[in-house]
Amino acid sequence: MEIRDKYKVDLCLKPSPQVRKELSRPYGILFQNDNKLASYVKSFNRIISVGDVVTSRLLDLGIVPFLAIIDGKTRRTVNMGTNKTELVINNEPGVLRYSVMSKVKEILEGEKSISVFVNGEEDMLVIPVILFGKDGDVIVYGQPNAGAVCLENWEGSRWRVLDILSKFIVETC
Prior knowledge:
alpha/beta; 7-stranded mixed sheet; 3-stranded antiparallel sheet; globular; EC 2.7.1.237; transferase; kinase activity; GTP-dep_dephospho-CoA_kin; kinase
């Protein structure tokens, strides 16, 4: 297929129902207590939060993430408002755009803390955060009806995410 001199083609990665089930399990340590969460994450150099509720919790505890990714909603319906963000990206619910993965990689390779607002859904962005984050980063994301999950990034977590990502269906957006 010839795409030279055409508009940039973007790919959407979509999880199969089996992969969705895999993604619904917490991968990391589940915290239900804010004080224990704060005590744990403070030992890390870079904290990355994905989700409105966990980002809000961290900020309320005086912890400013290196990268905070929100979509202004919780459970896809309850409007959380739009906190001040420096960057807006588009990522449809239930998919992971290749262009968004590239943007996350660019941010994580930088040195500047940033907050990102996602038009659509931010849940899948845990995947590129793990893939492109540094060893020793801690990723904090919400586990519905359970609490906050903290995952220390290292080679094993990237291997697990690559295995899951290999099961996604790739389509043109």
